[in-house]
Amino acid sequence: MAVSSTFVAADGAGYELQMGRWSRRLAPLFVNFAGIVRAERVLDVGSGTGSLSSCLAQNPEIGSVRGLDYSSVYVDYAQRKNRDPRVAFQVGDACALPFPDASFDHTLSMLVLQFIPQADLAVREMCRVTRPGGTVAAATWDTRGGLVFYRMFFDTVAMLDQSAQARRARAYTRPMTRPGELARTWSEAGLRDVVQDTLTIRMEFQSFADFWAPCEGKDGPIADYVNTLGDDDKVRVREAVMQAYLDGDPDGPRSYAATAWTVKGTVPA
Q1: pTM of the model
Q2: pLDDT in tens, 52-103
Q3: How far apart are CA 237 and CA 253, in angstroms?
Q4: Following CA atoms 124, 130, 136, 138 in sequence, which dihedral angle do they give, to the nearest 10 degrees?
Q5: Which end of the chain has fewer surrounding CB within 10 Å, N or C?
């Protein structure tokens, strides 16, 4: 049986620290790119802890938002935090969406397709549940060329640990993260008026402790690697990554660029 997600998901609050705080910055830029200004029903595929769904619900012209995620832990977290009756979350598989054809006016997916091995199937499912004339849009981090904190970590640990080299290669070559890959997949799925672009936010850390805390959590590729290390190796890796973070200056705030690939297309009539 095919696995529909390779993302290590264990703790909603941990994900918020690891990525949720940044996805909340990206979400309004992504919604603006997608051009979602009004709709009766919008689907958020890979809703995580609810950043995109919450952003969509800030628009009173959107009637309802359904968030779907593979992780029951994240769905539970999002449900507990949600106070908007127009928003609902449920567990589901992006490669087998539990909705009839043309159920939604628009379908969006933010920062999840890169963790779906059969990402092209997920895209076809997004198209299937979106009505003709509706928008299907997605965003994925440019892990190889546009995600500074990610490269800082994996480039550093790959120099120290041979086993980390394979993880580094995997991190930079996930589905839908290469130039043109999203646009090609959208076109192959039969979508019209396909547009691919990029969006950039800044990730601000108050100190190295702020940067490192998610690394010792339970969620995402970085923590997944750190949790394989023994105590001595973990100290060695932490010290090396700290030197990369400090980069010749005293400890304190740092701001790193984070660029995402974005794509949108229209479901044909």
Answers
A1: 0.96
A2: 999 999 999 999 999 999 999 999 999 999 999 999 999 999 999 999 999 9
A3: 21
A4: -70
A5: N
